[in-house]
Amino acid sequence: MADNEYFVHESAYVDQPCQIGNGTKIWHFSHVQKDVTIGRNCILGQNVNVASGVTIGDRVKIQNNVSVYHGVVLEDETFCGPSMVFTNVLTPRSGTPRNTPSDYHKTLVRKGATIGANATVVCGVTLGTYAFVGAGAVVTHDVADYALVYGNPARLAGWMCECGIRLELPGDTASNGETTCAECGRKYVKRGGAVSKK
Predict the structure, then answer these.
(1) Cα–Cα distance between 178 and 187 in angstroms, integer?
(2) pLDDT of res. 172
(3) What CATH number is given to the structural domain containing 33?
(4) Residue 84 lies in a domain
(5) What is the count of structural domains for the chain?
(6) What is the enclosing helix (H) or strand (E) of 38?
(7) How far apart are CA 147 and CA 150, in angstroms?
(8) Which pairs count as long-range contacts for 96-103, CB under 8 Å and 24+ apart, including other chains?
(9) Is the backbone peptide bond immediately before 153 cis, with ω within 30 degrees of 0?
(10) Which of 23, 30, 170, 178 has its CA 20 to 30 A from that of 98?
(11) Does 73 fall in a domain?
């Protein structure tokens, strides 16, 4: 890391120009395409593909076999589990290519959100701050801040603390309440179907 202040395994490819922050590690057989911005202290596991124009924040972990397509934005401290899937076109066809900017739909993964292994995130959605998508889920709609979702299609199943522990709050959108995380002591309030730190 002395030369670039980031690490790229000898089997990986990084196309230029791109911007990679200090302390980031890019592992075996990965490909970072041109015009990508990657923040500091990120980890890109084996066989990760990052498409041209993608922006990745600081301290992001992308596990093995993930493709981050054009239109995806990963904010700081997001986690992409092994073999999870992003899409970027709603109606793809091989014989009728989608090549205009309007064909590509933005996907925003907000700070601290987690996407479990083998989950699929359909393009055009926003995963809220510290949202938690369970393994194998298929996300077709926006996910609220701190929400826990799983299933196909993914549905609200509860709420999560920033530290990754499930909160004792009503799992529906109608009930209100307050709680303290049993693990780290952070306090949360739920009002009108939304959860925030107290």
Answers:
(1) 8
(2) 78
(3) 2.160.10.10
(4) yes
(5) 1
(6) strand 37-38
(7) 10
(8) none
(9) yes
(10) 30
(11) yes
Residue 130 burial (10 A CB sphere; 0-12, 13-18, 19+): buried
How far is residue 39's CA from residue 93's CA, in Å, rounded to a whole number?
33
CA distances from 103 to 51, 124, 126 (A): 16, 11, 17
Question: Which of 132, 151, 153 is CA-nearest to residue 143?
Answer: 132
Per residue in 71-91, pLDDT (tens digit) is 999 999 999 999 999 999 998
- Using the predicted structure, report yes or no on whether residue 198 has a pLDDT greater than 60: yes
Residue 174 CB neighbour total at 10 angstroms: 7
Structural domain harbouring 76: 7-167
Cβ neighbour number for residue 2 with a 10 Å cutoff: 5
**Residue 2 pLDDT > 50:** no
pLDDT 10s digits, 4-43: 699 999 999 999 999 999 999 999 999 999 999 999 999 9
Residue 149 CB partners (closer than 8 Å, separation 6+): 131, 132, 133, 134, 137, 139, 143, 155, 156, 157
pLDDT at 193: 87
- pTM (predicted TM-score): 0.95
